[in-house]
């Protein structure tokens, strides 16, 4: 995964979850971050959609198991998007 | 395996039972439970009825990870007429007890919005609860529906009102006023004095088993006074309030033989925040503008006669709020929230002005069966 996309997502997640960006890594997930509940999951989805100008389907939202998976998903969608 | 949200069918019932068991085992909350039956007992789907319930499940292989219900109904909206909408209720997600399923809540809410963009939710326990926060994030507009109460038996109220007795000093003070009778005198005096402002012409109140043409006329005349109300014509009321709840009564209020309003009253099931008190509720009411006071009085008297200790109601319309205040009802903090989706909110503009004339009560949303 490209470092820049992951870093951007990590910054967004840091703001939403209220934790330092340095404490987040690819395996950070609702299981490892106390503040990552269903409401914050929705906020993360909405923030990513706005930031990257895309729409996440239910199947894609479900793929967001951790930040690493989320970054891979966003990258794949950005590459597939018409330029 | 991908989670798929689909209509709840009989083949999902055992998975829903397992889902309920997991939620209850992990949360200890007996209210975290979805219908074990795929067919709604309250308001089952029917082609010839204006209001019905639909259930949905989030299926993950052979397991169910989430559920929700839509109450399909018609709202009258000033300027738009009748609008088909749905009430989003009983959303339950495995994410409540297992964070690996944190995404399920999002999937449920978004799925409901796709099925019915004109969506609302009601209740939710306050604007700071997860479901309310989630809807706000999805651009819903949130407003609290005012809560009113009237104390019938002050001594019991002072001793049993757990929600007000959380702080020790306040509990001691309430006990002292209950023992000395000061509390009784204070509450009764206040309510008696304020009730003087609520004097009404003579009227007759009777319990009725059905809503018919007289209710249609009241709906037809009264709806011009509201900016939003779920349809309350005779047919819809008959479906919503058919006599299958023994603790709920329908009252027809008349003057000189002419129906001037109606009220739905009932005794709520026991709730820890009310201690051992018997709590009566004015669930719903409707009247032409000049008769709100008579309806409030009739409903209050009926509940007082049934022996309740406290009477509560939620009312949003300024006309009804005034009528309850004039009859000695006090306003308390409300956790009863009305949330409207972006599409529905567009029909309600200007929102700040129009919401004063919304007619939202405890009969709306998931309504009676939840609390009685």
Shape of chain A: globular
Count helical runs of chain A.
4
Q: Judging by the overall fold, what is the CATH architecture of the largest domain in chain B?
A: 3-Layer(aba) Sandwich
The average pLDDT value of chain B, as a whole number, equals 89
**Largest beta-sheet characterization of chain B:** 9 strands, mixed
Q: Give the overall average pLDDT of chain A.
A: 91
CATH superfamily of the largest domain in chain B: Gcn5-related N-acetyltransferase (GNAT)
Write the layout of secondary structure elements.
The complex is a heterodimer of chains A (83) and B (372).
Chain A: H1 3-17, H2 38-52, H3 58-63, H4 67-80
Chain B: E1 4-7, H1 13-27, E2 52-60, E3 63-77, E4 81-93, H2 103-115, E5 119-124, H3 130-137, E6 141-144, E7 147-151, H4 154-160, H5 168-180, H6 182-196, E8 204-207, H7 213-222, E9 228-230, H8 234-240, E10 248-255, E11 258-267, E12 279-287, H9 292-305, E13 310-314, H10 318-326, E14 330-332, E15 336-340, H11 342-346, H12 351-354, E16 358-359
Parallel strand pairs in B: 4-5, 9-16, 12-13
Antiparallel strand pairs in B: 1-2, 2-3, 3-4, 3-9, 5-15, 6-15, 7-13, 7-14, 8-10, 10-11, 11-12
Helix pairs in contact in B: 4-5
């Amino acid at each position: 995964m490209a470092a820049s996309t992951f870093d951007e997502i990590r910054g967004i997640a840091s703001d939403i979850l209220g934790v330092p960006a340095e404490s987040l890594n690819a395996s950070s997930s609702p299981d490892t971050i106390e503040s990552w509940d269903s409401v914050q999951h929705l906020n993360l989805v909405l923030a990513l959609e706005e930031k990257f100008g895309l729409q996440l389907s239910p199947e894609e939202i479900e793929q967001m198991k951790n930040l690493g998976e989320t970054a891979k998903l966003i990258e794949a969608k950005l590459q597939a998007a018409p330029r | 395996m991908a989670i798929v949200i689909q209509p709840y069918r009989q083949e999902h019932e055992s998975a829903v039972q397992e889902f309920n068991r997991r939620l209850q085992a992990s949360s200890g909350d007996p209210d975290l439970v979805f219908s074990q039956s795929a067919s709604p007992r309250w308001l089952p789907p029917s082609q010839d009825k204006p209001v019905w319930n639909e259930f949905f499940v989030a299926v993950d292989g052979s397991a169910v990870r989430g559920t929700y219900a839509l109450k399909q109904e018609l709202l009258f909206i000033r300027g738009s007429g009748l609008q088909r909408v749905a009430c989003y209720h009983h959303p339950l997600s495995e994410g409540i007890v297992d964070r690996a399923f944190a995404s399920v809540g999002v999937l449920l809410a978004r799925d409901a919005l796709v099925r019915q963009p004109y969506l609302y939710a009601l209740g939710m326990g306050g604007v700071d609860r997860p479901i309310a926060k989630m809807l706000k994030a999805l651009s819903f507009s949130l407003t609290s529906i005012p809560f009113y109460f009237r104390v019938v038996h002050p001594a019991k109220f002072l001793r049993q009102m757990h929600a007000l007795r959380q702080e020790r000093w306040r509990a001691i003070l309430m006990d002292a006023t209950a023992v000395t009778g000061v509390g009784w005198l204070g509450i009764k005096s206040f309510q008696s004095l304020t009730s003087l402002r609520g004097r009404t012409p003579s009227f007759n109140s009777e319990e009725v088993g059905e809503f018919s043409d007289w209710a249609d006329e009241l709906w037809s005349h009264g709806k011009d006074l509201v900016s939003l109300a779920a349809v309350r014509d005779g047919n819809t009321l008959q479906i919503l309030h058919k006599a299958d709840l023994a603790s709920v009564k329908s009252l027809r209020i008349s003057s000189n033989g002419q129906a001037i309003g109606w009220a739905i009253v009932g005794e709520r099931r026991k709730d820890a925040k009310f201690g051992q008190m018997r709590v009566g509720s004015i669930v719903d009411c409707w009247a032409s503008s000049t008769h709100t006071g008579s309806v409030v009085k009739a409903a209050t008297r009926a509940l007082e006669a049934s022996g309740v200790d406290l009477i509560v109601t939620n009312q949003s319309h300024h006309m009804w709020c005034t009528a309850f205040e004039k009859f000695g009802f006090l306003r308390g903090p409300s956790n009863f929230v009305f949330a409207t989706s972006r599409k529905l909110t567009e029909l309600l503009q200007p929102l700040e002005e129009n919401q004063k004339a919304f007619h939202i009560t405890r009969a709306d949303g998931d309504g009676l069966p939840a609390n009685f």
